[in-house]
Amino acid sequence: MKRQELTIAFLVDNTPREAFDAITNVRGWWSEDLEGRTDQLGAFEYHYKDIHRCTIQITELAPGKKVAWHVVDNYFDFVKDKSEWKDTDIVFEIAKKGDKTEVRFTHVGLGPAHGCHDVCSDAWSTYINGSLRNLITRGKGQPNQNEQIADRHGMENS
Length: 158
Fold this sequence. Notes:
By secondary structure, the chain is an alpha+beta fold. The chain is built from 4 helices and 7 strands. It has a 7-stranded antiparallel beta sheet with strand order 1-7-6-5-4-3-2.
């Protein structure tokens, strides 16, 4: 069986260390509504209204090279399998490519067969290609944009 994953990559002029520092500043690009540290090994919790909650274990921090997370628990209110992300891995790989730095995001275990695939792919693309890239290159991301994504996919519960 083929490994299911979503991969997004981009190049920036910044150093690998600057990319690493931005990735580990999860409140700066994903959501300000987190509990726990995101810049050291351990767990943090993310939640957005009653739509999405997850507990993420930070399993690897290699400054300037790699950040790896393991989704310990997950809840979605908009798909049949409420725990779809559980036991998936999220990996950020950082590498020099000539005079640029490549950031490669992979959500291992998230594939087209998942009920959240379309909305999750859209959300990750917005966060990685937009918010995280802007945090690295401009010093400011756009966290908490999942409300706009939820609205676009008709998932708002208000």
